[in-house]
Amino acid sequence: MRLGVIVSLLLYCVAVLESDGCLENERIGLLQIKSYILSLGREEWNELELDSWVENRSSDCCVWNRVKCSNISTQQHVTHLFLDSLNSRGSHLINGSLYSPFQELLSLDLSNNDYEGWIGKDIKNLQRLKVLDLGSNNLYGSIEGNIIQDYVKFKIL
Ligand SMILES: *[C@@H]1O[C@H](CO)[C@@H](O)[C@H](O)[C@H]1NC(C)=O
Ligand SMILES: *[C@@H]1O[C@H](CO)[C@@H](O)[C@H](O)[C@H]1NC(C)=O
Ligand SMILES: *[C@@H]1O[C@H](CO)[C@@H](O)[C@H](O)[C@H]1NC(C)=O
């Protein structure tokens, strides 16, 4: 009983500590996405769009451009990522592993990016994902059938 109370208190403290903005692993995950996007071609447009995504522990990633978090006060998980219309030069791959830190993600917009295919973990382990927008890319015919089957649980726009 007493241990249970202590554990609850500890969990409460952790929740309170984390209540100030986004979760650390999600902040790091976003920075990995940023460096991947910039590695595909350091276009000025991309740098400007992701300018608010800074390597600073006290920066709340929930207020970063193109990011939306749940507004539950105790745990601010990233719920929406609007990563459309970036990297317009050349063609490249979606790295699915980059999205695995975002377990509360509801909506992922990767449209209009000239993506040609998929590498890394696929995103079916994102249990809450409801909207996956892959529109205006060059994915058709290049994604293997089994991955497409995983996609059908999502609303593909
Ligand atoms: C980090 O972010 C905090 C809060 O936004 C800000 O006050 C501080 O100046 C930033 N530090 C650096 C080194 O940019
Ligand atoms: C926060 O959540 C409430 C209840 O779900 C919703 O009505 C409100 O619009 C949300 N606010 C923001 C800024 O997302
Ligand atoms: C894909 O993302 C993962 C996680 O950040 C990384 O470890 C891996 O090197 C990336 N793969 C490529 C080909 O960029």
From TrEMBL:
Residues 24-70 form the Leucine-rich repeat-containing N-terminal plant-type domain. This is Leucine-rich repeat-containing N-terminal plant-type domain-containing protein. The lineage of its organism: Eukaryota, Viridiplantae, Streptophyta, Embryophyta, Tracheophyta. The keyword Signal applies. PANTHER family: LEUCINE-RICH REPEAT-CONTAINING N-TERMINAL PLANT-TYPE DOMAIN-CONTAINING PROTEIN, OS10G0469600 PROTEIN. The keyword Cell membrane does not apply. Residues 1-19 form the signal peptide. Keywords: Leucine-rich repeat, Repeat, Signal. It comes from the Eukaryota. It holds the Pfam family LRRNT_2.
